[in-house]
Amino acid sequence: MCFYDQQIFVCGDHKWGRFRAHCNKEYRTGETCGMKLIFEASRVASKCQMCKKYEVTWRKIAQAKERVARWEAEGINPVSTDKEKVNIVAWQKELKEIEMQRQSRMRTV
Ligand SMILES: [Zn+2]
User: Fold this and answer.
1) Number of domains present in the structure of the chain
2) CA–centroid distance, residue 14 to ligand 1 (Å)
3) How close is the Cα of 13 to the center of ligand 1, in Å?
4) Which residue of 14, 48, 53, 90 has the fewest CB atoms within a 10 Å radius of its CB?
């Protein structure tokens, strides 16, 4: 068990920061063990990278879907429509990956 700074974001997620101190057990070896303990926690007035990325991607999907719906209704831009649909699928995959990361993170906390 070693001590680290921790940043807590408004979304409730946290990020480990600087290494601060060894625990007694690891002190002799000079190595850090896998277990992290909070040395000092600070609150950050923003969302974490993961949630920010999630929001940005989510917005991109919403906008792309809107465009596709409009193009299809007007019967224009078939090539762009196909391209945009491919993008949407890729972005949705990204969202799923972020969600999975978030869930696996929660389990380890
Ligand atoms: Zn977050």
Assistant:
1) 2
2) 7
3) 4
4) 90
